[in-house]
Amino acid sequence: MNEIDELLAIRAAELYFEEDKTQDEIGQILNVTRWKVGRLLSAAKSSGFIRIEIVHPRARRLQLERRLRETFGLEDAVVVSNAGISSQDEIQIRAAQAAADYLTALRPVPRLLGVSWGRTMHEVSSRLKNGWASGVNVVQMNGGVSLNKRPGTAAATAMNIAQKAGGQAALLPSPAILERLETKHAIESDRVVAAVLEMARNAKAFLFSAGQADHDSAHIESGYLSPSELDELVRKGAVGDVIGRYIDSDGNIVDSALNERTIGMGLDELRAASNTIAVVAGPMKHAVAGALARSGLCKTLITDEGTAIALLDGE
Amino acid sequence: MNEIDELLAIRAAELYFEEDKTQDEIGQILNVTRWKVGRLLSAAKSSGFIRIEIVHPRARRLQLERRLRETFGLEDAVVVSNAGISSQDEIQIRAAQAAADYLTALRPVPRLLGVSWGRTMHEVSSRLKNGWASGVNVVQMNGGVSLNKRPGTAAATAMNIAQKAGGQAALLPSPAILERLETKHAIESDRVVAAVLEMARNAKAFLFSAGQADHDSAHIESGYLSPSELDELVRKGAVGDVIGRYIDSDGNIVDSALNERTIGMGLDELRAASNTIAVVAGPMKHAVAGALARSGLCKTLITDEGTAIALLDGE
DNA sequence: AGGCCATCTGCTCATTCGAGCAAAGCCGTG
DNA sequence: CACGGCTTTGCTCGAATGAGCAGATGGCCT
After folding, report:
1. Are the Cβ atoms of A10 and B59 closer than 8 angstroms?
2. Does pTM top 0.90 for this prediction?
């Protein structure tokens, strides 16, 4: 497009979108035919001069969803818009809302749903509506008895989801990570724990988030890892954790000894499951979201616009 | 609009604007009639969920232009868009470009054009195209022999504008502000100076900018005022200067003694002129732009989106 | 100069869209 | 339960628009 047409296109776009004039009227104003106006407008669109944004917390970016599905071979993807956000927290809230919506609309309704815990999952649980489903039981996928702060949020998350669907929650009464391998084996051999783990493996769908590998991690907040242990994991390539297990950017376990001491489903079991839904959003989680998407740890990814663009650019 | 319709409207907008589906197709997807889809879309528009932006350095905001004309009784207004700017400087550049465009399109072509000087005006002069008009002579409206930095930019601005239109520039060989009133009278009585001032009063159109009253002012940079003198002006209510004369937010001279020592056309002469075009843009200039618009110092205002909104909100 | 290819222009026609209207649904009231 | 006002729904019809095409235009090489 030459400069004169470009300027004409801008004038036409102003009159068409801001002043609600018809292409015919614009033609008279700019002294061109209405067909030329139509061509100018489509040229302006395809040159990217015209940006149309849907500003709403529930708005999604369907184009990015399609590109994510195609690029990473995902079964499904949900990308929430970042338009009009006022704080970082809002990105997480929007993604959590989208996950709640997705879960509500999920068909067939999973009789048994495996869930993880964490800030995002807690947000999802609180945004689900009462009666979002009827008779969905919930089981925890990984240990989450918090050691110090905010005790019981892991349990509350699962309970909340189950109660609102009129179902039961099966809680995993165990820490996330044990200090000694023997303790971990002892806990695993407990009949209740073993039964819950077995139940989790049979869940029809899994909904989980992921944590970034930094000092804001829920594992540090909960006291399962010290900041220096986490630094060591980062040194080994960790980008974040999925159901308590730290992975590198290829989705591989970074510390197999630590992994052995972690209670809950294994990542291979997760990869083998058919309906795995990950909710991972926000700029801190770009790296771990990439690891998830590339390594097949989830079949469905629920994320935000910024993360989606980062993943697609990174490819 | 209830919540269900709101969500439907968002889905419809996504499919319509992002996926280019017809309203009929969307109706099939969402299980509503195509008329309902149309109504949802117009509801979404009027609720402000759909934001259409024209992202281009030459884009204008016609709505704001109309509101400025109506609110301040301006003959004309040009408001450049702020969409997609990467730095503050770009706002000034866009406004300068708009001023150059405006001048080029101005009819009837002014045989004699009065101009001021400063960063913005210099930018305007450099963005005018060679041959933007034929046979337009230019005259300086106010003194501008710089005392220290960037000598000659005031003269270069006027020369540039004139040369590109194949005309002559009449320069005012005088400082902007004199220290002593006697010196000012002496300079004014010089035959060349008097002739140029007389010529300026007869210009058919005037194009000028305005400076903000702060320590970045061109008057301080050029050495006409010391920072402390400027602080004193601010204390008296100065918001900025127009052709070298400091005004308060009502457009009145704040220091009549200083005004007396300033060489160039007077503000009353400017108010009485028929075709006065001011270019004032950027967040620093909101106050002085407001003074200009409210006090009738310009008939045409060329500014940016942010300033226009500030002016309209302030009313 | 003449001819050729690529682009641009203005048109026809079919599709899509929006304004306006009558009928249907909804709600509170007597 | 019947009634009257109010909103919502599905429709008709004409305006607005986009796709596709034939002819015009213009640069460019021979």
Report:
1. yes
2. no
Q: Specify whether the CB–CB gap between B102 and B277 falls below 8 A.
A: yes
Q: Looking at CA atoms only, how far is residue B117 from chain A in angstroms?
A: 28
Q: Which of A10, A14, A54 sits opposite B13 (nearest CB)?
A: A54
Residues 6+ apart with CB under 8 A from B144: B116, B117, B154, B155, B172, B174, B175, B176, B222
Please enumerate in sequence order all residues whose Cβ is within 8 A of that of B217, keeping only pairs 6 or more positions apart, or say none.
B211, B225, B230, B241
- Residue B103 class from Cβ within 10 Å (0-12 exposed, 13-18 middle, 19+ buried)? buried
Per-residue pLDDT tens for B14-34? Answer: 999 999 999 999 999 999 999
Alpha-carbon separation of residue A213 from A208, A244, A258 (angstroms): 16, 11, 14
Instruction: Report pLDDT digits (tens) over B225-276.
Output: 899 999 999 999 999 999 999 999 999 999 999 999 999 999 999 999 999 9
Residue A78, sorted as left (phi over 0), alpha (psi -120 to 50) or beta, turns out to be beta
- A6 vs B contacts (CB less than 8 Å): 56
In DSSP terms, B53 is beta-bridged to: A51
Q: Rounded to the nearest 10 degrees, how much is the dihedral formed by the CA atoms of A24, A27, A32, A34?
A: -20
Which residues of A are less than 8 Å from B6 in CB distance?
A: 56
State whether A14 and B53 contact (CB < 8 Å).
Answer: no
Contacts of B128 (CB under 8 A, 6+ apart): B100, B103, B104, B160, B161, B164, B165
Alpha helix (H) residue ranges in A31-148: 34-46, 62-72, 88-105, 119-127
pLDDT at residue B216, as a whole number: 86
Q: Kindly report, residue by residue over A269-293, the tens digit of the pLDDT.
A: 999 999 999 999 999 999 999 999 9
Separation between the CA of B164 and the C1’ of D24 (whole angstroms) = 36
Burial B186-207 (b: 16+ CB within 10 A, else e): ebeeeeebeebbebbbebbbbb
Nucleotides in chain C near protein beta carbons (<7 Å): 9-12, 15-20
Residue A194 in 3-state DSSP? Answer: helix
C-alpha dihedral sign at B39, B45, B48, B50? positive
CA distance A51 to chain B (A): 5
Q: How far is the CA of B102 from the C1' of C9 (A)?
A: 29
How far apart (Å, rounded) are the C-alpha atoms in residues A125 and B258? 69
Are the CB atoms for B94 and B73 separated by under 8 Å?
Answer: no
CA distance B11 to chain A (A): 7
- Cβ-based contacts of B44 with chain A (< 8 Å): 54
Residue with the two structure tokens 């990869």: A271
pLDDT in tens, B46-55: 999 999 999 9
Residues of B whose CB is below 8 A from A53: 50-53
- Between CA A205 and CA A274 the distance in angstroms is 7
Indicate the pairing of strand B300-304 with strand B76-80: parallel
Q: What distance in Å separates the CA atoms of residue A6 and residue A43, rounded to the nearest whole number?
A: 9
φ/ψ (deg, to 5) at B288? -70, -30
